[in-house]
Amino acid sequence: xxxxxxxxxxxxxxxxxxxxxxxxxxxxxxxxxxxxxxxxxxxxxxxxxxxxxxxxxxxxxxxxxxxxxxxxxxxxxxxxxxxxxxxxxxxxxxxxxxxxxxxxxxxxxxxxxxxxxxxxxxxxxxxxxxxxxxxxxxxxxxxxxxxxxxxxxxxxxxxxxxxxxxxxxxxxxxxxxxxxxxxxxxxxxxxxxxxxxxxxxxxxxx
Length: 206
Description:
- The protein is mainly alpha-helical.
- It has 9 helices and no strands.
- It has a single domain (18-200), classed as Rhomboid-like fold (Up-down Bundle), CATH 1.20.1540.10.
- The chain has helices at residues 2-13, 20-42, 62-65, 73-91, 95-116, 127-144, 147-160, 176-191, 193-200.
- The radius of gyration is 17 Å and the shape is globular.
- It starts with a helix and ends in a 6-residue tail after the last helix.
């Protein structure tokens, strides 16, 4: 255990200084997701009632809470890797970029599902954020015409292009509307990032 901690610290210290705070925050977010899902196991799924229930007043809190909740550990595990990888790629554009993309995908995804999601359903999980990150990274290169952003878009398309089928209602039990509106949120963030940075007072990224 001590050897693992020392090795982890050495690896972390090799990272650029401006990347470390964002990675710490991203890892903390993932730890919270896992902690809540383990707690929900002991509560026998009691937390799942706080998901998004389209067009129901009781489902409004789910706009903010649903990304923290998952149907089971397998559901969370499927989201953890993409959140970590795609979130880290966004961090190369700065921590405030990650925060803005997260906020826009979170809100657009949640509000979109609540307004237009299939009735009598309960939407849980951070997959809307995954698709928000995916939408941002795929489209950012098109909007800024930066060689780095274009290279990242090609890499992300190669790694996760197949996930775009999740934007369509092809499988029962999948929140395709959450995927779609999360992706739209990421696309909005990609298109209007500079305006959003100005609005949030974070300034332009180098």
